[in-house]
Amino acid sequence: MNMPLSVSEFGIDYALFENVFMLGNGKGGVGKTTLTANAAAKSARQNLPTLAIDMNGQGNMHRDLGYGEQDQGKAFAESMATGAPLVPLQGVRENLDVIVGGPEVRKINGIVNDVARNEGFMAAYLRLAVCLAPLLPRYKAVFLDTPPENPDLLRLCLLAARYAVVPVKFDAASLDDGLKDFGQAFQMAVQVNRQLRILGVAHCFSPRGATRIHTEIEKRAQKTLGKHAYVFPQAVGHSSTMAGLIRDEGKTAYELAQERKAGTRSIPEAAENLAADYEALVTQIFKRASELRQAA
Ligand SMILES: Nc1ncnc2c1ncn2[C@@H]1O[C@H](COP(=O)(O)OP(=O)(O)O)[C@@H](O)[C@H]1O
Ligand SMILES: [Mg+2]
After folding, report:
1. Quick check: helix, strand or coil at residue 165?
2. Sign of torsion, CA 112 155 167 143?
3. Source organism's superkingdom (predicted)?
């Protein structure tokens, strides 16, 4: 890819993107969508006006947050086609809006190809940044969920974010192949989006207290992403029961844990553990972002 280095001619001011977190890994099934939904909901609970963006053709985020299929990503694809500002679904929770994904989002690949043909590659790859930028003054945090195995859309997301959070599961697909693909996409994107940083790797879905696995993930992340690769100390524990419940109920781990505390015994104890994991991990994500910002 041969991209010119200036983004100013597209009107992109990367200072605006300071609170945009993208969640990416070359592979699927590693926790991107669930972490996006739970992180966005926590951020909203902290009274930060928050936007979650679902760039998945599967549009699973509606299952995690329970807002239904809506327009299945039609408005999202239309904005990308015309370059108009994205249109959020408002009030999914207090302080939480969502850019809805779903099957219509699959059209974005074709749209971006058309833009590349008519306006050039740079215009194409900055399209998401262009459509997102006008919304940014309204939000204190934006979480962008990216699709796996889709290099074009991954690049769009990397050019519309300040920080990348990379969820991994302990398997070769996500750790080696997924991180490698992600690392390559990152290296290209940072040539254009000079503020982009890999904030850290988020260890998802291992049994609680799996410290040996955590250390191994640190080693593998440093091997693939470089010796400064950081792995957040807090992991997200494994619970198939909770995974099912979250998507059946359309509620976050925190919300389910609150219901259990209020007496709903059908919700397992794992809800409280998982909620605590997400709370701590998201706190670490915000803390590290603020440390990197201060160091910059
Ligand atoms: N705490 C958990 N433990 C085990 N599996 C989980 C947990 N939370 C979610 N899952 C499941 O793991 C799978 C992958 O998660 P998801 O967030 O969709 O990953 P991605 O967006 O990277 O594809 C989903 O089927 C999801 O329901
Ligand atoms: Mg997903």
Report:
1. strand
2. negative
3. Bacteria
| Ligand 1, atom nearest to 240 Cα | 4
**85 phi and psi angles, rounded to 5 deg:** -60, 145
The residue assigned the tokens 């694809």 is: 77
The structural domains of the chain, with segments of one domain joined by +, span 15-295
Ligand at minimal distance from the CA of 252 is 1
**Atom from ligand 1 closest to the CA of residue 35:** 17
Task: Give the span between the Cα atoms of 270 and 220, in whole angstroms.
Answer: 28
Domain 15-295 annotated CATH 3.40.50.300: yes
Which of 205, 213, 249 is the best mutation target for the ligand 1 pocket, counting ligand atoms within 8 Å of the beta carbon and taking the most? 205
pTM of the prediction?
0.96
Q: What are 145-185's pLDDT values in tens digits?
A: 999 889 999 999 999 999 999 999 998 888 889 999 999 99
Residues 6 or more apart whose Cβ sits within 8 Å of residue 101: 53, 54, 55, 56, 57, 58, 59, 61, 62, 72, 73, 76, 145
Helix (H, G, I), strand (E, B) or coil at 129: helix
**Mutate which of 22, 32, 33, 34 for ligand 1 pocket (most atoms within 8 A of beta carbon):** 34
Instruction: Report the distance separating Cα 174 and Cα 179, nearest Å.
Output: 6
